[in-house]
Amino acid sequence: MKLEGLSLIGHGCAEPKGSPTRAVNPATGENLEPAYYWADAADVDRAARLAWEAFRQFRLWPAAERARLLRRIAELIEATAPEIQQRAHLETALPPPRLRAETARTCHQLRLFATLIEQGWCWDARIDHADPTRQPLPKPDVRSHLIPLGPVAVFSSSNFPLAFSVAGGDTASALAAGCTVLVKAHQNHMGTSEIVGRLIQQAVRECNAPEGTFALLFGRGSEIGQALVRHPLVKAVGFTGSRQGGRALMDAAAARREPIPVYAEMGSINPVFLLPGALRQNAETIAAGLHASLTLGVGQFCTCPGLVLAPTGPDTDRFLAALQQRMENTPPGVMLTAELCAAFHAGVRRCLQIPGVQRLTSARAESDPAGTRAAATLLTTTAEVFLAHESLMEEVFGPSTLVILCRDFAQMLAVAESLEGQLTATLHATPEELIEHRDLVRALELKVGRLIFNGFPTGVEVCHAMVHGGPYPATSDGRSTSVGTRAILRFLRPVCYQNFPDAALPETLQEANPLGLFRIVDGQPTGPADRSSASR
Amino acid sequence: MKLEGLSLIGHGCAEPKGSPTRAVNPATGENLEPAYYWADAADVDRAARLAWEAFRQFRLWPAAERARLLRRIAELIEATAPEIQQRAHLETALPPPRLRAETARTCHQLRLFATLIEQGWCWDARIDHADPTRQPLPKPDVRSHLIPLGPVAVFSSSNFPLAFSVAGGDTASALAAGCTVLVKAHQNHMGTSEIVGRLIQQAVRECNAPEGTFALLFGRGSEIGQALVRHPLVKAVGFTGSRQGGRALMDAAAARREPIPVYAEMGSINPVFLLPGALRQNAETIAAGLHASLTLGVGQFCTCPGLVLAPTGPDTDRFLAALQQRMENTPPGVMLTAELCAAFHAGVRRCLQIPGVQRLTSARAESDPAGTRAAATLLTTTAEVFLAHESLMEEVFGPSTLVILCRDFAQMLAVAESLEGQLTATLHATPEELIEHRDLVRALELKVGRLIFNGFPTGVEVCHAMVHGGPYPATSDGRSTSVGTRAILRFLRPVCYQNFPDAALPETLQEANPLGLFRIVDGQPTGPADRSSASR
After folding, report:
1. Tell me, what's the ipTM?
2. Best CA proximity match to A114, nearest among A462, A459, A458
3. Of A142, A160, A369, B338, whose CA is between 20 and 30 Å from B424?
4. Which residue in B274, B271, B397, B292 sits closest to B346, CA to CA?
């Protein structure tokens, strides 16, 4: 595919304007062709108007038709996978196996949402039948289901050039919901974004979706990002990135004349709690697993385990020695950008400035042509120091972790209680310890979106029960998840029909249940074959 | 019950501080005993801390126990109904039959949420089973359900002293969710609030609920209301009231270090569309129904039909004549407060200042000892005038409606398209017209929470499918409803367990399904008796 360096609006491209920018190969520091032109406010406005017009039709499409579009996007991505991955590797330095896995995940997400909307239980269809004989007033017939919010602005992440980017989870769930989508491409992988964007454009054409169903905009977050969030025709926002970036979008959305929901996933430090029984049995295995999790993707995951809590003692000493050795033996990895790498080093230095924080790994000097290489870094301190320094709770994005040595379980619990909102918390424990220390689980339930037992937080399974969310500041909205089928709920709202004639109702709510949906009928969960539904 | 005039915190009362205030009888303007003392920031802080401590226990109560508390509150309200209604009548001038109906509704709501949480499908329990053989990586066991957010601040409404106040829908749904509740009493019905608050306090004691499960605070919205919304231990807000008041809470919540959700129901003008076929057949019946709806409770409902769209012509003339006659024959009603009544008259005057707006009812002078009497008021204008004056879209809270005469259907559709977010829209049409003018239904779906066919918007049925919500500015959050069982979702968020041993899981998610819940198992809606659930 020939890359043009232009934003994609409707079936065409935006005009080139201003001075262009090139993506950078983080492994070499070299510029990559072609040059990319930023969109401007007029482009955003045109794309938003098209998206609104398209939304009015697209939301009425049968779910099966929207599913067809999602599957077609997946097919086109698979057919173009080598080209996408090659470009993504140049732009991100992520290794080919990772990019292959991410391609598979992206296509799986698209197909999972396709199946979800065909099954249709996600529409939360509810029917309360009338009772004309009720006293003192007759009971009306009331039916409701969920409908899409409108055009959604999606902000691509830097660390998932495919699965959380142009055709990623936000786009898949928004299109599945019946929303149209305006993607702001991430400037670190513009070529990858353009390839995937053109494939979506092709799928939109092939499936005869309305022209404004999808747009891809290149530009700065502080400019076209803000313009997108402030545009009156944009009705929701999906974002994966930094806390600062996410909060800026939240504040802009809340200050609108019509405030809109922002679903920002802003990362966290993902504490790992090591209980004595598990350490006694598995100190080395846990060290190996933790090392793999925290160096995966050069630590550039929102679920990277950046904090470990362990009791002082010989088992923890064994664990630390094993972890230290593995980290020393890990060659430095290439981070996504020189800026991220500089921020990583600054973050490590910030921790080390706090008295009582020690570095267990050596600071190695290596050849680093592009200023992007980060060495796996192991820090430790005590619970007292951690509790006294709030800044140690800040995420250090990259391959490092801070091990907090706790005098006793009470101190470990105190650290848990002190934490701010997190995407995940992990417990390594024997099953008996997990029951015995239920108070730790309960404290963590109030802090996180996901609890992991004897595993590691990286590798977020895309399924129905997954929660990739968590209380602020892990996300903008702890009521939501950006991974798994619950993600579609972010872009839906209920609408209710009272005493409507059956023929004028949406098919989801018609008495005969022509779509064969699972529904809540008179307060009872009711499958299409259930008597309570068929008997009326 | 002897009223004390003090906020209720824990099992006791706040200290009297500052100079007290008395409620006013809106029918006579007389002060009512006793004097009420405002809570201060220290009271809010104490109540919030107690609520947080209570939450940590209360959220873990079995649903059946929380259901018992809700039912006990309903029983105590029923046992005290005459006293509650007598006081409410003195404070609001709402007629005894209305207050009896509102008592019944309040108790119905409490019991509906009790049954809902016992059935438990509202917890959205989801199970994705592990697949250790999956390639390239084993699939983990992932389970999730919804847990409560934390202490909820509930702002009582002025117009529903029972059903949207101390033990109203927000309190019932928050307690059902497992949240603890801090109610800000409305200053217009402080005695009613105190009686109901003491009954909840009694139920909390009798059911051995934690002491901070409930608090009732007297004070000004701009003071203790803001203090509640800004308190770090308050995690969500329910509000029914004015747009200005709701927006102030939204802005305060969004500006917190940890922003929290605000569910503000801020009212709307609830347009009614009259199509020619329905008018031809039923001009007089529609006029009778509309008159009853818009004068019900002296027009003081968020669902009061404040806007009517009708085609010009003889059938509309008949409709207008019938409506005018009924409104002229309606004796002025006593509004809830002199302030609301003054705002109503100012709102009517504001409309009449616009050239082309006419008043069809006479402005009658009547005895009005307390400045609270409002006469039913019928205004008309043309679609051109309406479309040219945005201020005509502002709610005039009270017994008035504005009839917009439309030249043709296209103009009616143009008015529909111009509307901001509404709680409801109503269509009077023949079934054939409803199908023929599907574009009107579709335009309205994007504007409202509820569509009513050949009925009237007042009388919001409390059931599973009800949506009492709608896009901003009807509410702060169009994804929510404040009436019906979906209201519980406002106070819940998902939490996920990965590879947890069965015994360490909450009962909702245990494999054997000990609570007999409906759940989503491996992507399939699954009842407790379904094979797909039992086979594992």
Report:
1. 0.97
2. A462
3. B338
4. B397
